[in-house]
Amino acid sequence: MTGSPLKTLRILLVLTAFLMAGMTAAFLLRPGASETSSGNSLRLGGDFQLQSAAGPVSLSDFRGHPVVMYIGYASCPDVCPTSLAVMAQGFRRLDMEQQARVRGIFVSVDPDRDSPEKLAEYSAFFHPNLVGLTGTRAQIDQVVQQYGAYYRIANLDNSALGYAVDHSSRLYLIDADGQLNEVLSHSITPEELATKLRGLL
Amino acid sequence: MYSLSRLGAPLLAALMFSGPALADIEISDAFVRATPPGVDVSAAFFRVHNTGGDDRTLTGASTDKAATVELHTHSEQDGVMKMRRIDGIEIPAHHDHRLAPGGDHLMLIGLTQPLVDGDRVELTLQFSSGDPVIVTAPVWSAQTEMDVENRIEENKHHHKMP
User: What pLDDT, on the 0 to 100 scale, is given for residue B156?
Assistant: First the structure.
């Protein structure tokens, strides 16, 4: 399914990423670099406010709970439900006490089709601890930018769908203090996710 | 990642002597995604075995459970998932192709009812030549699907037709 040129491209991208990480580290660790200059612009994550069916919700409301966040859209038929199922199965692999503490956040970047009410039902289908949030375009774009995510509305002239949403598909692991701990591939297994969550509990 | 495409010659031979002689196309491992509340789209997945000597192209499908069925594919570029409609999926002679999560799928648009784990969906598949092929696919929740995927992984080398 994946052609070898794509694989080569991917390897090049990974190598480029390593190179840039190395250059960034060298820059940050250079003699005389001050603590303050190394901070916020490079650090992903942070608080945000979006809308739930029950009113505004901020990430800071989840203080004390490790959070797994996913950014997608509800009419995504394949990638999003698979990722949310992995999240839910990861939660279910925890013991009852641990499971009661973890939270999931599904952020829809498609507020035209996904109302907060629809997202509440949609999210509960996967796990009772998963909440569905969306917001204004500005609120959504802020979260997407803060977490280094990506989305783009792609008009599909030849499809009854009208449009699809191209989007990055990652699980954002956030610790109980609201700090982004790790950005995970959606191909992670439920067991691997559960192990990472146990590390934050 | 999901590709299980390398089937051995013995299996191909077995396929050629199994099913009815008129059918060069065999469908296996079909399932349709259960829908979360409020969602009226779903995806269908299956494996197409082309046991004949001619290349065939899957050109479309229909079902009484959805207003529209389209062929879609996913591509991943720099971690960004893109879903697009495609006109056909070619299955070369004596090959098989799996429409699998994360790749090609039938997109069911405008579902007439929610699809619940345990339901069955009849799909009529059109190919570039030959008669339509009818397949009845079970509806699976994500949990059922994961269990089955795990079993497929475990039994990779013992794959057989249902």
Answer: 64
